[in-house]
Amino acid sequence: GVLCPTGCELKTTLTKQEKNVKLVIDELKPELDELSQSSNRIFDYVNGMSNSLRERQRLVTDNNRVVVQFTDQVEENHAYIKEVVDTVFPSNIRVLEGVLNKIRQKIQKLETAIQAQREKCKDPCMTKCPIPVVSGKECEDIYRRGGTESQMYMVQPDPLYPPY
After folding, report:
1. Residue 110 and residue 119: Cα distance in Å, rounded?
2. What is the DSSP letter of 154?
3. Can you state the percent helix, strand and coil of the chain, rounding each to 5?
4. Which domain holds residue 62?
5. Count of the separate structural domains present in the chain
6. How far is CA 102 from CA 15, 94, 113, in A?
7. Structural contact between residues 145 and 134, judged by C-beta atoms closer than 8 angstroms
8. Quick check: is 158 in a domain?
9. Considering the domain boundaries, does residue 163 fall inside one?
10. pLDDT (tens digit, 9 = 90+) per residue, 110-146?
11. Could you tell me which residues come within 8 angstroms of residue 62 by beta carbon, excluding any fewer than 6 positions away?
C-alpha cells in the first residue's frame, strides 16, 4: 500500500488530520462566538433602526396631515379675509362716504344759517312793542314781581352783563 493505502493507513492519516482540524476548529470557535454576538448586535441595531424609521415615517405622515389641515384652515381664512377686504370694506367705505357727505351738507346748511343770522343781527335789535318796567333774573322771578301777562320782559340773569 504506498500507492493505494489500506483502511488502517487511511484511518491513521484521518486521525492526524482530525487533530489538526480540531485545533483549527477550537481556534475558530471564539471567533465564531464573537461573530455570532456581533451579528446579533447588528441584527438588533438594524431592527432598532427599522423601528425608528417606521416611527419617523409615521410622524412624518402625521405631521403632513396636520400641515395639510392647517394649510386648509389658512387658505379658508385667507379667502374670507380677501372677500372681506375686496367686498365688505369697499361697501362699508361707500356707506361711510355717503354718511360723511350728508354730514358735510348739514354742516354747510348750518354754516349758511349762521351766516344769515349774523347778517340779520349786524344792527342792534329794535323792538316795536313796549317792554314793561318789571324785570328779573328769569321768567319765574318776573312772574313773582307782577309780570303776569304774556309779553316781552327784560331779563338779566347775571348782574355783570346788561339785560336783554
Report:
1. 14
2. E
3. 75, 0, 25
4. 7-125
5. 1
6. 124, 12, 16
7. yes
8. no
9. no
10. 999 998 888 887 776 665 667 777 788 888 888 888 8
11. none
pTM of the predicted protein model: 0.37
| Residue recorded with cell 481556534 | 27
Per residue of the chain (164 residues), give pLDDT as tens: 455 556 677 777 777 788 788 888 888 899 888 989 999 999 999 999 999 999 999 999 999 999 999 999 999 999 999 888 888 888 889 999 999 999 999 999 999 999 888 888 777 666 566 777 778 888 888 888 888 888 888 888 988 988 88
Q: Which residue has the cell 438594524?
A: 46
The answer to whether position 142 is within a domain reads: no
The label of the residue with cell 339785560 reads 163
CB-based burial, 132-146: b 16+ in 10 Å, e otherwise: eebebeeeebbeeee
Would you say residue 155 lies in a domain? no
Q: In angstroms, rounded to a whole number, what is the distance separating the alpha carbons of residues 57 and 37? A: 30
DSSP letter at 5 equals -
Element (H, E) at 136: strand 135-136
